[in-house]
Amino acid sequence: MRTIDLQTQISFQRILLATDFSPCAEIAQAYAVGLARHDSSALELTTVVKLPSLDALSECALESFRRASEEDLKRLAEPVTGIKVTRKVIEGFQPAAVILDEAVDFEADLIVLGTTSKQGLKKLALGSTAEEVIRTANCPVLTVGPHVRRPLDGEISFQTIVYATDFSAQAAKGADLALALGKSEGTRVYLCHVSAEKPAAQAAGDYRSMSSLKALVPALSHCWCEPECVVEHGKASEAILALAKRVNADLIVLGARKASFWVEFVRTGLTPALLATATCPVLTVC
C-alpha cells in the first residue's frame, strides 16, 4: 500500500473489481463504479475462470466457460459511462492468487469484491477467496457483504466512517486511511476501540484507550474534520456494528496484521462477523 499523505485528500485512481456475477458482486460493482466516478478513476472489471484439475474438463468445455465469462463482463461494462472501463478474464487454479497478481499488474490501489459471508449458529465463515484476498493484498480491499444495500447511482464518497482498532502497529494504517478519506466536506470519522476490561478495571482501561485513540489523530486532521474517539465494550464485532448503526455509518475501516490475521481476526470472528452482518461496506488494510 502506498504511503498515505494526510495533507492531501486520498483518491483511488485504479480500482479493480473482482466479480463472480453473484448478487453481492453486482452491488460491489455499483460501489466500484460510484467510487471511480467520484475520483475519475480507471476501473477494471475482472472475473476468474478457475482451472480444473488435470483432465477434469475438456479444452472445449473450458473455452466455453471463457467465452461465457467474456460475455458476462461485456454485459456488466456496457451500461457504465463517464469513466474508463476495461475488462479482463483471468484464470488459474487458485482464484485469490490470480486476483492478487492481477491487482499488481493493473497497479490497483483498491480491490473491490462482494462476499457471500454466511452466518451459522456457532461460527462465521467467509468464502476462501475473500479471506485470502483480504489478508494478503498489498492495497486496501473493499468488501460488500450480503446485507449491504445497493447505493444510489452516481458518484460515491463516504460521509460517516467508523474505524476500529486494536492499537497494533499495523492497525494504525487503517487510522491514516480513515482520516484521509474523511477529508471530504462534512465527513464524520469515529475512531473506536472495543475494551475487554472487566468492570472493576473499566474506568482506568477506558482512560488509557481514549488516550491511545486521541494519539492516533494528528493535529493536522483537525483542519478538515473533528474525529470523535469512542470506547465501546463487549464482543468486538457486535460493539462495532452497534456503533456503525448508531451513527448511520456508510463505511467501516479495519486495520489488520498480515502475520496474525487468521488467528486474531478470522478465528475469533471479528472480520467474518462484520462482513456477515454489516449493512455498509468494510474497508480492510493490511
Q: What are the secondary-structure elements, in order, as H or E?
A: EHEHEHEEEHEEHEHEHEHHE
Integer average pLDDT? 82
Please report the first level of CATH classification, the CATH class of the largest domain: Alpha Beta
User: Helical amount among residues, as a percent range?
Assistant: 25-40%
Please give the domain count.
2
Q: What would the CATH topology of the largest domain be? A: Rossmann fold
What's the helix count?
A: 9
Alpha carbon gap, first and last residue: 8 Å
% residues in beta strands: 15-25%
Per the principal axes of the C-alpha atoms, what is the gross shape? elongated
Secondary structure class reads alpha/beta
CATH architecture of the largest domain: 3-Layer(aba) Sandwich
Regions with little confidence, pLDDT below 50 for 5+ residues: 119-126, 259-268
The largest sheet has its strands arranged as: 3-2-1-4-7-12-11-8-9-10
Radius of gyration: 19 Å
CATH homologous superfamily descriptor of the largest domain: HUPs
Give the strand tally.
12
Note the main sheet.
10 strands, mixed
Describe the protein in words.
The structure is a single chain. The protein has helices at 23-39, 59-77, 95-106, 128-136, 171-181, 202-215, 236-246, 261-267, 270-277; strands spanning 14-18, 42-50, 84-92, 110-114, 118-119, 124-125, 141-144, 160-164, 188-195, 228-233, 251-255, 282-285. The chain is α/β, with parallel strands linked by helices. It folds into two domains: 14-144, HUPs (Rossmann fold); 160-285, HUPs (Rossmann fold, 3-Layer(aba) Sandwich), CATH 3.40.50. The strands form two sheets. The protein has a ten-stranded mixed beta sheet, sandwiched between helices. A two-stranded antiparallel ribbon has the order 5-6. Strand 5 and strand 6 (124-125) form a beta hairpin. Helix 3 (95-106) packs parallel to helix 4 (128-136) and helix 7 packs parallel to helix 9 (270-277). The radius of gyration is 19 Å and the shape is elongated. Mean pLDDT is 82; it is low at 119-126 and 259-268.
